[in-house]
TrEMBL record:
UniProt key word S-adenosyl-L-methionine: no
Organism of provenance: Rhinopithecus bieti (Black snub-nosed monkey)
Major subcellular site: membrane
Protein's name in the database: Calcium homeostasis modulator family member 6
Membrane topology, record value: Multi-pass membrane protein
Taxonomic lineage from the root: Eukaryota, Metazoa, Chordata, Craniata, Vertebrata
Single GO biological process annotation from the record: ATP export
Protein family: Belongs to the CALHM family.
Gene Ontology molecular function, alphabetical: monoatomic cation channel activity
One GO cellular component term: plasma membrane
InterPro entries with a match to the protein in the record: CALHM (IPR029569)
Key word Kinase present: no
Transmembrane segments: 6-27
Keywords: Ion channel, Ion transport, Membrane, Transmembrane, Transmembrane helix, Transport
Localisation: Membrane
Length: 143
């Protein structure tokens, strides 16, 4: 009796998730091909960001170690501020008027350098765009 109820519960959950996925994709303001492009863009952006961050961290570490052993002062190295890191790490929201493919894309294209990019009028969270903030794309295994 209980195994049958368990299988019925599992089937019901799977059917509900399937219906939710279908409905959210049908109501999405983003087309299937644009969604594919978006995923490719994010993957490439993350690869390049990881590469540049590794390169920058290596240069900074080399400079600090050199200065430590030589007793000199380090040359200036431009590293983003905590506020800048927080802005590109915030939750992504979709805006049909200003379409950006990531928070980094939104950050570098902002109108005024002093304003926050976190939320503007017309921003909405679209379920089908959940991959933008997903840990699978934004995680950096091996770091």
């Amino acid at each position: 009796m209980f195994p049958v109820l368990g299988w019925i519960l599992i089937a019901a959950v799977i059917i509900i998730l399937l219906i939710f996925t279908c409905v959210s994709r049908c109501l999405s303001p983003v087309s299937f091909l644009q969604l594919k492009f978006w995923k490719i863009y994010l993957e490439k952006e993350q690869q390049i960001l990881k590469s540049k961050a590794t390169e920058h961290a290596t240069e900074l570490a080399k400079e600090n170690v050199k200065c430590f052993f030589e007793g000199s002062h380090p040359k200036e190295c431009n590293t983003p501020s905590v506020k800048e890191w927080q802005q590109i790490s915030s939750l992504y929201t979709f805006n049909q008027k200003d379409q950006y493919y990531s928070m980094l894309h939104k950050y570098v294209n902002r109108k005024e350098k002093t304003h926050s990019i976190r939320s503007t009028e017309g921003d909405t969270v679209i379920p089908v765009l959940g991959f933008v903030d997903s840990t699978g794309i934004n995680s950096t295994p091996g770091l």
